[in-house]
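Hey, resending since the last one bounced:
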Amino acid sequence: MNRFALLFAAGLIISASLGITALADKQYEDPGGKFKILLIGDWRAVSYNDAVGRQKTEFVYRDRSEGLLKITKESVGTRAVADLVREEEETLKVYKAGLEMTGNEPFGGGPLKGIRLSFFYVEGERKYAATYYYLQDGDGVWILRFSGKRGALDTIRNVTDQMARSFSPS
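The structure tokens again:
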């Protein structure tokens, strides 16, 4: 009987924690009407004005060092997304110290498809992980750039993948 009670209590605790996590997820809609993304768990939007006074929004996981997401859109014209990713890889080799590429793979499952690029790098004495999602949208590409402390960001791949799959242009 005690085993049953213990298993039942464990099941309740797990169910409650999953329910709390689900409630914490929130849909973010860009004020300019450009895109929507689901913020999962401890991710939150942080808005500020840049040096020129333009409104910017970044997304932070707990604090900026653990996880930071910047979203941009680039026009690619007739170029393939794969070409843009190759150019980015070459640039990273020049500008990111201690670069260690960990993945370059097709990505899909949401409204947009593209490529997922992941790597490790070093800034000063700190080790970082990064995952960039290049999502094709007509003649443009949305780039979701996740970066954060190695050991924090790289352990939540399922969350960053899920957020990237939830991304949709408005």
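The helical segments are 2-24, 81-95, 157-166.

Sorry for the duplicate.
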